[in-house]
Amino acid sequence: MTPEALGSRRWVIPEGYIPPGSTGPAPQMSSHETACLLNTGDADAHVEITIYFADREPVGPYALTVPARRTLHQRFNDLIDPEPVPHDTDYASVISSDVPIVVQHTRLDSRQAELGLLTTMAHPIPE
Amino acid sequence: MTPEALGSRRWVIPEGYIPPGSTGPAPQMSSHETACLLNTGDADAHVEITIYFADREPVGPYALTVPARRTLHQRFNDLIDPEPVPHDTDYASVISSDVPIVVQHTRLDSRQAELGLLTTMAHPIPE
Amino acid sequence: MTPEALGSRRWVIPEGYIPPGSTGPAPQMSSHETACLLNTGDADAHVEITIYFADREPVGPYALTVPARRTLHQRFNDLIDPEPVPHDTDYASVISSDVPIVVQHTRLDSRQAELGLLTTMAHPIPE
Amino acid sequence: MTPEALGSRRWVIPEGYIPPGSTGPAPQMSSHETACLLNTGDADAHVEITIYFADREPVGPYALTVPARRTLHQRFNDLIDPEPVPHDTDYASVISSDVPIVVQHTRLDSRQAELGLLTTMAHPIPE
Questions:
Q1: B103 vs chain A: nearest CA distance in angstroms?
Q2: Which positions in chain D touch C29 (Cβ < 8 Å)?
Q3: Are strands D8-16 and D123-124 parallel, antiparallel or unpaired?
Q4: Strand partners, B120
Q5: pLDDT tens, A58-77?
């Protein structure tokens, strides 16, 4: 239960895609992409997400706070300011924080009756 | 068959979620989250897991031993002391060991008839 | 929204396999392997992919451009010059760029009615 | 198409489990665990795999060769010397090579009618 802030200040996720449809009860079974953020330190983490696209300039920053000693599982579906993340569109993301955090990427795809799941650690940028 | 202890002493898994239901025969097909720990060294690994939440203070440590030259595939579902890990709740974990180990994270989701699987290496903290 | 080029100039993906069949509407649900490339920098990335096989010499380079501040989710199915990537065949890939990028690997397998998904970061080669 | 040997000489995979059953046509749809090995260099890679268990001493080495500039997608199901890898049993593996290689881990689980897939890079041990 160390208060040390573990991880890196910048993380990259090249894969992003919110499936255009879902089956099953919302919101648990809604198709979604999630960035799981963990802040193990004693100071709140002020996080900014920038979204990159195939054919236009990046959008952001999307501002989030991960309180000290807390995890935030942020659905990209729920990012709306400055603008919603489009569905059925390839995107990528860079996640920056003022203190070290750790970031993991997960997608649940329920376009078909049986869900698909994928996950990976985001790519940490060395300090 | 080297006796050298490979890996790192601290690992982070930001994603944690035990699905609230299962289909199929237990325990093989029960929805579960697992931390796969490998201790390649000649000394037992004394491991402590701390669980982080979105809205309350971390819980732990959960104490485990991975004997020398053994692997332990520990289901988070089975962690009960100091308290069970809640289902249908976002969490994250930090895994600390007194000797280097390697940690991989896996989830089997059998809420629907056909299982979903995900895995990733945990994020190692450099010594 | 930093213009800094993040990542590494070389990435490795040992796993490659384009399933021989699909179910569901094309192209979204076609079985495919994808390399998700993100170029966060202000200069276009000139990328070369080399494909390795089990039983013959490597093929390539396949040339791609990822424009500045853009992501490209490139299906291996769509690589045709110098030759198409064969289906139902084990392969591997090395991705080289003249500027740092980040690479993530994804497969959608729709041979059966319900899709299978997998992803991982490619393995970065330190500069 | 560089002849440089990329990667690391040792890799660790804490997760290992060959499901006890399959559905669908063999061998493509048989439940299996695979280590995908890529040798980008100009010298053959002589590889040794050691298998670790929960409750007995490690077994190995299993000897493989990955020829120069080739990939080998080795199913753990097919490792038989010094002894077959048991099914329905937790295991882990360490993969050692005399030259740098890159290793990725994949499982296809076809116990149920629709397949489950997972993958991750193995954990590289720094030289």
A1: 13
A2: none
A3: antiparallel
A4: B105
A5: 999 999 999 999 999 999 99
